[in-house]
Amino acid sequence: MQKTASEARELVPAPVPGPSRGQSRPRESPQSIPHAPSPVPEQRPLTPAQIRRAQLVSEIRWPRSYTVEAICAVPHPVPTHSLASSLCMTHLLTGSDDGYIRDYDVFTAVNGKNFLTAPQRHHCGVMEGIMKAGQIRYWWENPNKMLPDTPVDDPPLSPVYSLAMHSDALWALAGSDQGQINLFTVRHEPGRLVHSMFRHRGPVSALALQHDEKGFFSAGWDGEAVQWDLNTGQLARNFTSHGAQLAAIAVRPLASSFHGRPWEPPPVATTSYPPDSQASQAEQYTQGTHSGTTASGTFVGSSQAYTQTNGTTQTQQDDDVKSEGSYDPLFDEEPDADGEADDEVTQPSQSSTLQGSYPGSAPNGSFPNLATQRNGQTNQMQQRMRAISGGVPAPKNAPPVLDPASYASFSPDTLMTAFIDGQIILWDTRVNSPGRGVGRLWMSEKTPPWCLSACWSADGTQIYAGRRNGAVDIYDVRQTGTSSSGTPKVLKTVRNPISSGVVSCVVAFPDGRHLASASQDNIRLWNVAEAMESDAWGKTKGGVQFKIIPGHHGGFISQMLVDVAARFLVSASSNRGWHGESTRTVFVHEVKHIL
After folding, report:
1. Could you tell me which of 162, 154, 155, 153 has the C-alpha nearest to residue 180?
2. What are the angstrom distances between the C-alpha of 564 and each of 36, 207, 352?
3. pLDDT tens-digit profile of 252-261?
4. Using an 8 Å Cβ cutoff, are 521 and 534 in contact?
5. Which residues contact 55 (CB under 8 A, 6 or more apart)?
6. Which pTM value belongs to this model?
7. What is the pLDDT of residues 291-342, one digit of tens each?
8. Ordered DSSP codes for 222-262
9. Residues contacting residue 13 through CB under 8 Å, at least 6 positions apart
10. Which sign does the torsion angle of CA 44, 48, 49, 51 carry?
C-alpha cells in the first residue's frame, strides 16, 4: 500500500535548530566546556561480621588504670603451651603438652555458679577465696605425622606449641612439636582436620595471622619464619636470619584499628642550627651517623640530646647506652630498690661542653666559629658511635642494625621476630629482595642474651621485649613524629624486683598505655606511659610503679591473652619446651576499668 505525499511529509522529522551547513559553529572557550566529574571511589558496605567487630570497641571509654583479679581457674592434666581466642572471647582454645586442644566457653564459666571442688582447688593451687570452674565445649586430638607402620585407629598425638584462631572462630591453626601446622574447624564440626602444612624442622613456637586472615606467619625452633597462603595451603615466603631459635612473631597492628588514647613520650631535645651548617649535617648523615634533619629543620640525635643552657650546650647520655634498667644480677652491681627508678641525675662533664655559642645567644649578634662548632659536633658523634659499638656484637649472618636511611623506607606492613638469644628483627613484608627491608634492633651491652616473649603495642608504635634479668625493654619504633629519632631505640626500661625471676611473657593492653609482664612469682601490670617518667622538677617518680595481678604464682607463663575490649586476661603456664618450671592451670582474670 503506497503512502500519499501528505502522509510522507508528516513523517519527515523536524529540522534541528542550529547553524546552517555554510556557517561554522562558534568555538567555545575551554572554561565553558563542562567536564565530567571524577568518579567517586566505590565504598563497599560493611559486612555483618565487620559491623559486629566494630561494635565491640565502639562505645568504650578507656580508663586511666585497671584492676585485674582472677575469677576462674581451668585445671589441666599437663602444662599448657599456647592459647587462642575469638575476637569476642566466646571461644577460648588451649593447647597442651598431652596433644589435646580444648575449647572453653568463657562467658558461661564466669557467669555460672560452678565452683572449683576441693581436689580442683588443690590442683590449681587456690587455697583462699572462691574460684569459678571452667566450662568446656569440645576437645580434640592434634595428630602427629602419620608413619607408614602407624595404626590408623591410634594415631600419635603431638604437643601443641602454638595456636591461632579466626576472629569469628571458623577455624584454628595448631603448631606441633614436629614442625607441622594443622588446620582445624572450630565453630562448625569442631576438631575436623582440614589440612596439614609441613615446612619447619622443629617445634613451631609461634603463629601470627595477617590482618585480612587470608594468610599467616609461623616461627620455629629451626630459626626460620615462614609466610603461608591459606587459600592454597602452600608456602608463600621464607624469612631466614642467623639461625637462632625463634621465640615470638607478631604483625604490626594497623593504625586504623587502634581505638585507645595515643600518648607521646618526652620529645628528644633539639637545637636549631644556622643555615650554613646544613651542609655539615648532610655530611654527617652520609657518613653513617644516626642523626638527621626533621621537617622543621631541627637536628635530632637518636642517642644524645642537646640542651642549651646560658649559651652553652650540655650533652646528656640517653638511656640506650647507659641502660641501668637492663641490670643483670649475675654480672652487674646492686641497682636501686625493687620497682623503683634511678634517682641519679647524670651530670655532664666539662669535656662534653661544646665551645662557642649559637646565634640566638651570641652577645653582639655575631655568629660563632663554625669550624670549632663542627669539630665539637664531630667529637660528639664519635663518642656516640663508640658507645653504640659497645653494644651486643652482631651474631653471625644477622642483619645489620636499623639506621634512619633504611628504616625510613619501611612500609606499615612490618613483621617482628624475636629470637631466644635476645635479638629482635623487623622485616618489611612488601620487600622480597635479599638483604633489603630487614634490620635488627640495637641492644645494650648490659642486655642479657635471652628473650622468650615480645609483642607490639596496640597502636604499633612500640615493641615490648621481656629479658632474663627481670626487665622489659620498651622500643620506640615510630618512623615519624616530633619526638621520633628516625630509627628504633630503647625508649625506657621497666624493671621487676630481682627476686621475681625472668620475664617469660608480655602482653599489651588495647588502650596503648598498659602492659602485663609475667615472671616466675607473679604477673604485674605496668602503665608504660607513666612509668619511669620525671615530674615537673625533673626527678623520677619513686615507689612501686606496678600492680600485682593475683592468681598465678610459681612457674613460667607461656602465653597471655587480652581481648579487644579489655574485659578479660587469660594466662597459661608452661616452659614451652625450654628449661623451667610450670604449673597446670589456666586462669581467667576479670579486668575492671578505673575511670
Report:
1. 162
2. 45, 19, 48
3. 998 766 665 5
4. no
5. none
6. 0.72
7. 333 333 333 333 333 333 344 433 333 444 334 444 444 444 444 444 444 4
8. TSEEEEEETTTTEEEEEEE-S-PPEEEEEEPPPGGG--S--
9. none
10. positive
